[in-house]
Task: structure prediction
Amino acid sequence: MALSLGKFVAARLSSVVIVVVSVTGLTWLSVNLLRPDLRRGEEQNMFVALGDYMQRAFLHFDFGNSATSGREIHDLIVQGVPADVSLLAGGLAVGLLAGIAGGAVCAARPGGLAARVLEAAAVLFMCTPVYVVALMLLLFFGAGLAIVESGIYIPTTYVPFSVSPLRWAGALLAPWFVLGLPLAGVCLRMMRASMTEVLGEDYLRTARAKGLRPRTVVRRHAVPSAVAPVFTVMAVTMPIVITNLVLIEQVFSIPGVFTGMKRGIAAGDFDLLFALTAIAAALVAVSTLLTDLALAWLDPRVRTGTVER
Result:
């Protein structure tokens, strides 16, 4: 049955809410079942206590106080989420655009020098941990840390967008690339495989036979037809991207909401960890929602639920 765009968006939004609430509730329940001493002195039923917590957290945005910082978790979230969203959005843009462009080059010129270099780089960045790449960049180009006098330095202090948009972009440029490179490698391989199939289609042969330049055929016809699977694989890798985001925050000292995770785990600050679980689930779910919307725009069959037979 075909779905209108409004119903499609409403269905995806409801799935985001269900995922975030379910993940947070299951995390709270699992921890309290494994650590009953956390509720010592409380006579309230476990599931009633869970309901009270979920009501406070999602209806009143009250996740309690952080035992490690002594501050309200609400304030930590409001202060840190903008940096997380900025880092995630830039990393996804870099990974997606670089992966699509690199995959198109590899498919259009298979076996060429550029294709071999790009494929080798994709494997390298997929296999290398992001914190290793980040530390290497800081050691070579970090302001105050660089061991090479290159005249090009990476800012090591985060600047909010409200203070200076230019300095904000400069401080996040290196983290964007570090976060986006593994995603670019995955997207490149998917784009190469998808375009290899598309380039053999009859309508592309016809376009070339009509005298269109190969570059024009690739850019205007092959890339738009092959790009949809790239969004799908990006959605699948979102949990890994969020994990890499947490690591990059630590290396580049970006004041995101996950900066206190290490101390929270060490100190058993479960209220903070429950809130971070909700934020991570929300970032994954919202990113997947945006991917679904992009897929629905690229391929209406995703929205209507119809496929060719």
